[in-house]
Amino acid sequence: MTPQAEQLKKSKIFTVFDGILITVVLILCLLPLFFQLIVPTKKGKSVKITHNGTSTIYSLSQNRIVEIDGAVIKIEDGKVFFESNDCPTKQCVHTGKIYNAGDSAICMPKDIRVEIVGDGFDGSSK
To answer: Within 10 A of 55 (CB to CB), how many other CB atoms are there?
Structure first.
């Protein structure tokens, strides 16, 4: 066999190690999606809205609009979201709709925290 043929034989595009590495990386990338499908998430029963240290709890079963310091928070069909806000970043508006127990959306410039609360221990109890 000529030296060029031997080098061509050695320079395969993918080796067995490359295949194993690609498989492991693919499994690691899909693992969070797998756990999200298997582990059930608890739907929230109510929403706790905190502004400057004062909290108010609303039921997620009643549609309503809450206005706080220029922010419009909408509770609709068991989900809650910042519909609009006049803060400079609008990160809270981009958070989208939240509905699982433990989910939260925060407007840091105005100190507004919206948190979904489920049954029993919600992580903030003492």
So the answer is: 11
Structure tokens belonging to residue 52: 């400057």
Contact present, 83 and 72 (Cβ < 8 Å)? yes
State the pTM of this model. Answer: 0.63
Query: Which residues make Cβ contacts (< 8 Å) with residue 102, sequence separation at least 6?
Result: 42, 115, 116, 118, 122, 123
The enclosing domain of 57 has a CATH number of 2.60.320.10
pLDDT in the model for residue 82: 94
Inside any domain, residue 113: yes
CA pair distance 92, 110, nearest whole angstrom? 10
pLDDT of residue 122: 44
- Give the Cα separation of 31 and 27 in Å (integer): 6
**Could you count the other beta carbons within 10 Å of the beta carbon of residue 79?**
19
* Domain contains 124: no
What's the domain range around 12? 3-38
User: Given this model, what pLDDT does residue 9 score?
Assistant: 62
In a domain? residue 126: no
